[in-house]
Every structure is written in C-alpha cells, then in structure tokens.
Design brief:
By secondary structure, the chain is mainly α. The chain is built from eleven helices and no strands.
Length: 255
Amino acid sequence: MKVILARILATLLVPVVLLALWFHLSADSDNFFFPPLLKSLVAFQDTWLSGRGATDIVRSLSRLAAGFLAAFAFALAAGVLLGYSKVTRDYTEPVFEFFRAIPPTVMIPVLLVISGIGDTSKIIVIGLGCLWPMLLNTIEGVRSVDSVLKDTCSVYGIHGVRRLLTLTLPAASPQIVTGMRTGLSIGVILMVISEMFASENGIGFTIIQFQRTFAIPEMWSGILLLGIVGVALSLLMRAFEVIVLHWYEGMRRQS
C-alpha cells in the first residue's frame, strides 16, 4: 500500500504544479484563444460532469476498453505462440513488420467506408494501435525465459498449460505489463483521433465541435479532461503493475 501511495503522489505532483502555474499565469489573460484557467474550470463543470458530456466520457472509455482488451487477448495468445516457436516466428515476422509499419490512423478512412461511423471502426483503430507494443513485448518476454528454469521444468515433468501458468507467463509478465502500459498510452491517443474524424459522440468529437464553434473555454475544458483521463489511467496501470509484479519488485529490491 505504501508503494502504491508513493507512486500516486509521484504521478500527481507534476500535474498539480503545472495546473497551479497555468492558473497563476492565465489569471489576467484577455486573449480570446487562451482564456483564464478559471473559465475553463467553470466550463468543465458545466460541460463534462452531467448530461451529454458525461455520456461522451462513458462512450469514449468503453471504446478504449474494448479495443485495449481485444488487443491484449490477441497479443497474449499470439505472443506466447510466437515466443515458443522460432519457426512460426520466422514465417510470420515479415507479415507483422508490414502491418506494424502502417499507422493505425491511416486505416480510419478505410474502416469508415466498411463499417460506418459507429463504434466498430473506432474500436478496431484503437485495438490496432494497442496491439503491437503488447505483442512484441509478449514475444520477447516468452523468448527470454531463463533456460535453466526451462530445463528444471523439463526435469520435473512440468509441461503444457501447467508450465505456461507457473513459469512462462510469470517470467514474461514484467515485459507484458510494459507492453500494456505503452499500448494504453497509444490507445488514448487513437481514441481521441478516431472520434475527431467522423463520429456522433465521444470526447474527441465534442472537443472538435467546440473548436469549430469557437467555444474556447469549453474546448480547453476538454483538453483538461483528456489530461485527467490520462493521469487516472496511469494510476490504475501503476496499481495493476504493483499488484501483478509485487514478487518482481521485491526481487529487485533484494538484489
């Protein structure tokens, strides 16, 4: 618990300092495009804490969760398979490199034509962006399992699913979690971009509507919201990392 609290404080310190600095420097601003932070905070309360704004937040986060979890499930299954089998990895690596080189945002117009402006296209874009960091880290994590531990499992007859659950996944989990953290950051970016292209709701859609109608304080309130969402997801990811990798952190402290 102390470790989690320390990480939360470390995560919140810089954003709080930056917000205080922003509040102070913008207090007397009469620039139309850079209003005082107080105006944006008032607009934040009116825009995002009730009604349509709260619904937009839920829709955006549900798309992010669906894309991220789908990508994680595929990355874990494919990463374990490719990490175990060098032959499979050699055959599929050129294909993966080809698709990895294509930015997910390029697929947005194509997916809009295929599936329209509904949730499906946005979830696919988010999933594609999250996929590669998680897949590549899972492959490397499985590949890098200590050969001595592998031989020990073989000697004691530990194979199949039991070996996967007791050796491979725990040993690869530090790199898997690293890939999840990177993929989540990319997923947030793609969530906003996909909603700005063609959408009927969501945080990105609402922000771009405010920009087009010159509702500047409301636009800045949306940017503040994205920062808050990013910090909140980072804290959740850190808490998840502490829970899943407590054994690893303890081992590192001992060494």
